[in-house]
Amino acid sequence: MDQFLFRFFQRIRQALGIELGLGEYMLLQEAFERGYDPLDTEVVFDLCRKLWLKSREQENAFRQLFEQEAVLEIQLLRKKLQHIQLAEARKQQEKRTKEDANRKTKEDTPTEKPKPTPDEIASFEQQAEQQKSELKYEVEEVQVRFPQQQNHESEGDQRPVFTRKFLMSGNYHPMTEREMKQNFRFLRNKVAVGESEAININATVKKAAQRALFEKIVFQQRFENKLQLLLFIDIGSTMVAFHSLGQQLVRSAQKGGGQAHAQVYYYKGAPTEFVYKNREATQQVALSSLLSSLNRSYTNAIIFSDGGAASIKEESDRSLNNWDFLDQLIPNVLHTVWLNPMPEARWKGTDAEMLGNIVPMCELNRLGFSKAIRILRGKKTAIE
Predict the structure, then answer these.
(1) How confident is the model over 180-196, as pLDDT tens digits?
(2) pTM more than 0.70
(3) Over the range 104-142, which residues count as b (16 or more CB within 10 Å of their CB) and which as e?
(4) Is the dihedral of CA 200, 205, 210, 214 positive or negative?
């Protein structure tokens, strides 16, 4: 329930110009804690309307925004709760199956034989001594010669005994590094920061004509790219085959893609409390402090992970951790996109399909990467 409908709350304040503070949003959360059903669309609509609207004239616009945004959040919450219930039911079933197996094992285990009496032990020892006296032992000395270790490295040949050569090339990736760089260069957020040294001739002539007097030269504005790009790279076990592709993605952004100041963070499977600055996962950063330090107006995020599409079995903990990560990330950045190295045909029926309902997910190929860049630029209708 953390941050549930918070984006809708912010949208209402901006679109309708209503002066609402954090207290009004906390009243909604308190109502849910006291028993109001957050999955009932009509209940949520009536509750938000009573808590936030100031006049009846705002109701029509409020209903339109509610149907566009709040209904989607309620549906996603419903799916998330269903996923949690299924995961809990699966755990309970596995627990019962394990208990039944242990119980069956105990039932099949033969009962412990009774311990022999002292008289039986004495009888066994007497029989053993009698058998030893009847046996004749023959002792034979056996010599075993171990072959001397051969020296495989002669003075003239210093090569290792076993060698394998592999051709490591990026030519087999779905995109070349050059293509990634070209796409990254379209990703900008230019902000005017003052005047440059170049003269704006048209503006200068227009100003002089309007006043019939030449007063001063008008210079062209100077722009800076204020975009801050975050790259979250999954280095978990299911991403082993795509480690090289992830390195190419980072290299393309920082070297030649115009995103030299892009921040790169690594995680395994799903981000939890910490992410890491290096692939060895030795330099950790608290996720909460990282997100709180961002300037939302200029920050975009790219997530590179299979999202569970490369896993044979469903991992409920990983899925829930990814849900929580997106719930924290999305309100703190301007645009978010998920790049998935697995083919889109493999997403169906996996966690990747559900995560794609929360954040735009694109397959990492030429068409998908171009679509992802358009989404990060704020283009609502991506190319198909």
Answers:
(1) 999 999 888 766 667 77
(2) no
(3) eeeeeeeeeeeeeeeeeeeeeeeeeeeeeeeeeeeeeee
(4) positive
Q: What are the backbone dihedrals phi and psi of residue 63, each rounded to the nearest 5 degrees, phi first? A: -65, -40
| Rounded distance between C-alpha atoms, residue 78 and residue 198, angstroms | 56
Q: Which residues neighbour 318 within 8 Å (Cβ) at sequence distance 6 or greater?
A: 269, 270, 308, 311, 351
Dist. CA 90–CA 80, nearest whole Å: 15
User: Beta partners for 300?
Assistant: 229, 335
Q: Collapsing DSSP states into helix, strand and coil, what is residue 166?
A: coil
Q: Whole-angstrom Cα distance, residue 196 to residue 270?
A: 45
Q: 184 and 373 in contact (C-beta within 8 Å)?
A: yes
| ∠ CA 65-69-73, rounded to 5° | 145
Instruction: Please report which residue ranges of 109-168 form alpha helices under DSSP H.
Output: 118-134
> Using one digit for the tens of pLDDT, what is the confidence trace for 42-89?
888 888 888 888 888 888 888 888 888 788 788 887 778 877 877 787
Strands 284-286 and 274-276: antiparallel
Cβ 373 vs Cβ 336: under 8 Å: no
DSSP conformation class of 317: H
Alpha helices in 135-286 (DSSP H): 177-184, 201-211, 243-254
